[in-house]
Specification:
Number of domains: 2
Number of strands: 8
Strand content: 15-25%
Shape: globular
CATH class of the largest domain: Alpha Beta
Order of helices and strands: HEHEHEEHEEHEHHEHHHHHH
Radius of gyration: 20 Å
Structural class: alpha/beta
CATH topology of the largest domain: Spore Coat Polysaccharide Biosynthesis Protein SpsA, Chain A
Helix content: 40-55%
Length: 326
Amino acid sequence: MAQAIESVLVQTFRDFELLIVDDGSTDGSHAIMDRCARRDARIRILSQANRGVSAAGNLGFEKARGEWVSRLDADDLFLPDKLQRQVAFIRQHPDVRIVGTLGYFINHAGRIIGLVNSDGPFTRAEFERMAGRGEPVFFVHSSTLMHRQTVLAAGGYREQFVQAEDVDLWLRMAEKGHLLLKMPEPLLLYRLHGESLTMKRNAEQKRCHRWVMACAEARRKGREEPLLADFLRAEKRRPWPVRLHAFRQESGERFYQKAALHYAGGNYPALAACLCLAACLNPGHVIPRLYDRKIAPVLENSLPEESPVPMPLSGGKEACRHASGT
């Protein structure tokens, strides 16, 4: 956590407040927050009983004082000029309401292992085509800079869609005509490890994403959104070829994620096995991403040899070394 906080404090863009939401932590995180807050007046700590990431995100949006809010999960890191480059982007595109970026996958030791979130939309035309088809924009959450009042007016994160609350919010914003774009620059380090919620609760996340998409389709057709129980009953009534196709697609995505995890950990035999299974089950998902995120950057020699952000101090000690103390 301290490393994530430090990656914010060393931003080249300096005019910000840093809100740290303590969602009922019991692992000593609050002590780290307190140490950092004592050394930098820009830090404010918000505490709540353990209610989950959606409620924590909403609390941050409600209490923020600025016009724009940037998210950062505790495992991820901003590159030093992330905020400065995003602020410059929104000044050039004053009608944009969310701007995200590309990022680099890093493993537990901080080694860069590939690109993440390499798809668009990067232009208004791309976004309008996606919105017209009802396709969601997939941001890495920690890459986003979001217009606070627009998010609040849309209702913020809906807690029932845990694991897909971000996609639900972005779909609803797009439906209201708000422009959502990505910058084609990697400005984030996204940590890949087996303890992440995405890895541990992948099946639940996929189910919730399907529910979010079913709700979006219902809204487009002027119908009420299905409750979770109704959605699950409808899924069970799907013809078996449709269910088999969905199973193949999601299994392929899951094995692709497992392959990435094995690559991050250096388990290359398991990587090869998972990657082969993923490509057989869902080649349309795996092959383009494998090329865009790993093969193309290697061919172009565009991946940094080492992380642009210092890794944790030896011995596991966490500190906010660059807090200004102002």
